[in-house]
Specification:
- The chain is of the alpha/beta class.
- The protein has twelve helices and eight strands.
- β2, α2 and β3 form a beta-alpha-beta unit.
Length: 299
């Protein structure tokens, strides 16, 4: 019997804030989380890609999670992103994050090594067996080079605490294939901002979003319109939003989301190397999109 969770709605993939010397800015991260909660988001994903997971030590990750818990206080589900180089490292992170009070995990395939079907299934199964907490499997083959296929999810269907699939392959046909194959065995979340409305229309229970970090109100407006069947309004907001939603499928999505968030008064652009803040024409083009969008925000 699969574990049941109350995951639905918009879950921001929250940026981790840093000071100018690249140390953790815990207060800045908490302030952004508080702002998102005040706008009615439905869950939190800390230390995902946008949270610069791979740029933090385990000790720093636990600091961020404990600080998030201080402001969240159980008000919405808190998920911790797990992106490690080894399966053992992922299990270690899961155990430490569970002790820090998270409600579940968003687990990525192992970083760097491109695992095959048997290896990918073993990675997720082993992590799931190491914890009682529920797991969202994050499928993003364009970025992580491993496609967690429907066949692999068939192999994992007996793992009770693997409860959700975050689908970010960019091909919305996959969502219908998953529903046809598994019915209600897994919750399906949209994981890519610029196919979000299509994914919601196809039945996704939730949306792990990046640009919600900068525009939580408009993001909520689109979600609520879709949930109420007001597709005309949802489409109006989506078309307004799309130039920025395209940032989410760019290799520099972290920098783009932090730039947009900073421009809207949430946090700073500071990222940890090897990432560097956007500069030159790339930054100016992005700022024009952000500022034009801010000036024409839907009501």
């Amino acid at each position: 019997m699969a574990l049941k969770v109350n995951w639905q709605g918009v879950f921001p993939a929250v940026p981790t804030q840093f000071n100018e010397d690249l140390s953790l800015d815990i207060k800045g991260t908490q302030k952004h989380v508080e702002a998102l909660l005040s706008e009615g988001i439905h869950g939190l994903v800390m230390l995902g890609t946008i949270g610069e997971n791979c740029s933090l030590s385990l000790e720093e990750k636990i600091q961020v999670l404990k600080a998030t818990n201080e402001v969240n206080k159980g008000s919405v589900p808190l998920l911790n992103g797990i992106a490690e180089y080894t399966t053992a490292g992922a299990c270690e992170t899961a155990a430490a994050a569970a002790n820090a009070g998270v409600d579940g995990f968003m687990v990525m395939p192992a970083m760097v090594y491109n695992s095959d079907r048997r290896e990918t299934v073993n990675h997720f199964r082993t992590i799931a067996e190491s914890t009682d907490l529920p797991i969202m499997c994050y499928n993003n083959p364009p970025v992580y080079k491993v496609d967690i296929t429907p066949e692999m999810f068939e192999d994992l269907a007996d793992v009770d605490n693997i409860v959700c699939i975050k689908e970010a392959a960019g091909d919305t046909r996959r969502i219908t294939d998953l529903f046809n194959t598994f019915k209600d065995r897994y919750l399906i979340f949209s994981g890519l901002d610029d196919v979000a409305l299509e994914s919601i229309l196809l039945g996704c229970a939730g949306w792990v979003s990046g640009l919600v970090d900068a525009f939580p109100r408009e993001n909520g407006l689109m979600w609520d319109a879709a949930m109420n069947g007001n597709w005309e309004k949802a489409l109006e907001v989506y078309r307004w939003y799309m130039p920025m939603l395209h940032f989410d499928s760019h290799p520099k999505l972290v920098q783009y989301v932090k730039l947009a968030s900073s421009e809207m008064g949430y946090g700073t652009e500071t990222v940890r190397p090897p990432r560097l803040p956007l500069t030159g024409k790339q930054r100016e083009d992005a700022l024009k999109i952000i500022r034009d969008s801010a000036a024409s925000r839907p009501s």
